[in-house]
Automatic annotation (TrEMBL):
This is Inhibitor I9 domain-containing protein.
């Protein structure tokens, strides 16, 4: 089951690789921030999410990986 996450990357090659992986595994890029923020919001399949968590956060090119949610003030 795909979950919605916002992902920001350290470098262009990681951004391109994981974007391709998300789509190849049946996920959906919801918002692409392009090279301005080097990231995207996406519905990420569990297989890719596990890979991101295992390799991406331990020096694998991911700066931030957090669940996408609604934020309110009041």
């Amino acid at each position: 089951m795909a979950q919605k996450f916002i992902v920001i990357f350290n470098d262009l090659s990681s951004y391109q690789k994981y974007k391709k992986d998300v789509v190849a595994e049946g996920g959906t890029i919801v918002n692409d921030y392009g090279t301005i923020a080097l990231g995207f919001a996406a519905e990420i399949p569990d297989t890719v999410l596990q890979l991101m968590r295992a390799s991406g956060l331990s020096g694998g090119g991911i700066l931030s990986l957090e669940a996408d949610s609604v934020v309110t003030i009041q």
